[in-house]
Amino acid sequence: MTDADTDRSGPTAAVLVIGDEILSGRTQDTNTNTIARFLAALGIDLMEARVVSDDHGRIVEALDALRSRWDYVFTTGGIGPTHDDITADAVAAAFGVALPEHPDALAILSRRYGDDFNAARRRMARIPEGGVLIANPVTDAPGFQIGNVFVMAGVPKIMQAMLEDVAPRLRTGAIVHAQTLKVSGVGEGAVADVLRAAANQRRDLSFGSYPFGHGSVGEIGTQLVIRGRDADQVAAAAHDLIAELRNLGIDVAAA
Amino acid sequence: MTDADTDRSGPTAAVLVIGDEILSGRTQDTNTNTIARFLAALGIDLMEARVVSDDHGRIVEALDALRSRWDYVFTTGGIGPTHDDITADAVAAAFGVALPEHPDALAILSRRYGDDFNAARRRMARIPEGGVLIANPVTDAPGFQIGNVFVMAGVPKIMQAMLEDVAPRLRTGAIVHAQTLKVSGVGEGAVADVLRAAANQRRDLSFGSYPFGHGSVGEIGTQLVIRGRDADQVAAAAHDLIAELRNLGIDVAAA
Question: A56 and A62 in contact (C-beta within 8 Å)?
Fold first, then answer.
C-alpha cells in the first residue's frame, strides 16, 4: 500500500500471540493466518503481529504498544485453567482494572463442569472489569473483549469459533481485492522492471512478487499479486501487466 | 522460565518476519517456527517474534526495537530483485550506513545470471556497509549479517539453507531439555493444582499445559511440558509429576 491509499484504508488491527510453546518451536502458530484471513474478509487491515512468551511484563508491554496504535488487537492463548495461563491478569493490569469473577462466566463454567468445577477451572471466570464475554461454543470457557482488545483461546479450533462471535462487533472497511498472475519459465528478476513501472504508475495499488521453484528441478516462475480496494483498478492493472509481459515474450496468465 | 532461571539463560534472539503476504493471510509463515527450532538446538532463547509489512518505516522501527533489546535478530523476507524488496534499504537506514554494491555479492550474482544480469537483479548485490554475506546455496543471491542482525530470504527453503551458514557465527547456550507427559481422559482443569504445586516447587523449570481433543468426539486430555536447562531436574520433575497424578487416579504417561 502506498501513502495515497492510506486515506481509503479500513480499520487497522494487530495480533498478539501469547505462548512459550510458539517461541520454543514446539507449536507452529496458525492463529495469525486465520485471523489475517478473517480480517481481510472484513476489510480490516492487519498491520502487525507479535509473539510473546507467557511472561506478565512482556504481555502487558506488547498489549499497551499495540492497543494504543491500532484500532483492534486480537490476542490468542493463555486463558485456560493452569498456572501458566496469565493473559487475563496481564490484560487487567494493562487496563488498570480489577479481575473479578464475571457472573455469566461463572454460570457458564459451573453448568459445564458441575461437580468438577474446581478452583483451577474457576480461574477462567475471572474477567477484567468492564469486559464483555466472547462465546466459546467448543468448550464453553469464554474469551472476552475489553476496549479494543479481544482476548481469545490459543487452541485453533476454539479461537476460530470465537471469531464468529467477535465479527459483528467490528467496524468493517472496504475489502481489498487481489488478483494473482502466474509467470512461468523465468525468475522474478526478469519481470522486476515491468512490475516496478506498474507500481509507480498505479500508486493506489500494491504489487507483490513471490517466486517459486527456485533452484529445483521443474518449473520456475513467480506469482505476481496485485491488491487494492478498487476492483476495477485491480482488474485493469492485471490486464495491462499481462499485455506488457507478453509483449516481452514472457509466459504469464491469470492464476 | 522463572526469574531464578534467567541467570543461566543462553543468548537471546528475536525474529522479524517482513512481508505483506503474511499479514494479508495469503501466506502462512513457517520461518518463525523453523528459526525457533534452530535456536532451541543451539541453546539460544527466542524471546519474541514480529511480523511487519513491506514498509520502510515499520521495518526500521521494529529492527531498532529488537536489535537493541536482544542478542540476535533474524529477519526473513524482502531481499529479492523487485521493487517491494526493501529490507536491505531499511537495514542500512536502521544502522545509519550506506548501501553499496558488495564486490563478492556482485561476483556471485554476475556468475549466476550471466547475460541475464540486469539492473533489477543487481539490486540484490547491495549490502549495507560493514555487512558480511550469508551464503545461499539454493539460488545464490546472498543474505547478510550486520552487527547482531541476520538478514535472510523469505522463501522457506532458502531461509533454512541460510541458517546453516549462520549457525557457526552464533554464541550458543545450554540447551533447554523438554519432557512431555500425556494426560488422558481428563481436561487440564483436573491437573492444574498438581501442576501449579510442581511449578512452585521447582522454580528453575517451566511447566506448560496444552489440552487436546476439546469438545470433540474421542480422546480428551492435555500434554504437560516440563522444560529446563538441567536434564536431571527435568527428569526428576517428570518422575514426581507422574507419581502424583497417578496417586489421584489420573491416566498419565511419558509421551
Answer: no
Q: Are residues A95 and A160 located together in one domain of the fold?
A: yes
Interface check A201 vs B, CB under 8 A:
no
Question: Which strands form A177-184's sheet, in the order they lie side by side?
Answer: A206-212, A221-228, A177-184, A251-254
Identity of the residue numbered A72: Y
| Interchain CB distance below 8 Å, A199 and B23 | no
Integer-rounded Cα radius of gyration of chain A = 22
Partnered with residue A18 across adjacent β-strands are: A52
Residues A129-178: tens digit of each pLDDT: 999 999 999 999 999 999 999 999 999 999 999 999 999 999 999 999 99
Q: How far apart are CA A144 and CA A148, in angstroms?
A: 11
Inter-chain touch A81–B30, beta carbons under 8 Å: no
Q: Do B52 and A48 touch (CB under 8 A)?
A: yes
The region that residue A168 occupies, defined by phi over 0 for left and psi between -120 and 50 for alpha, beta otherwise, is: alpha
B195/A contact by beta carbon, under 8 A:
yes
Residues A139 and A23 in one domain: yes
Are residues B25 and A47, on separate chains, in Cβ contact within 8 Å? no
What CATH number is associated with residue B129? 3.40.980.10
User: Is some CB atom of chain A closer than 8 A to the CB atom of B208?
Assistant: yes
Task: Using the Cα atoms of residue B228, residue B230, residue B233 and residue B235 in order, give the sign of their dihedral.
Answer: positive
Q: Is A220 on the interface with B (CB under 8 A)?
A: no
Residue B216: pLDDT above 90? no
Q: Are both A110 and A224 inside the same structural domain?
A: no
This prediction's pTM: 0.94
Q: What is the pLDDT of residues B35-45, one digit of tens each?
A: 999 999 999 99
B210 lies within 8 A of chain A by CB:
yes
Interface probe for A, chosen from B1, B5, B15, B26 (most Cβ of A below 10 Å), is B26
- Locate all alpha helices (DSSP H) within A24-117, ordered by sequence: 31-41, 56-69, 87-95, 103-113
One domain for residues A92 and A146 = yes
Q: How far is A96 from chain B (nearest CA, A)?
A: 24
Is any Cβ of chain A less than 8 angstroms from the Cβ of B103? no
Instruction: Give me the CATH number covering residue B204.
Output: 3.30.70.260
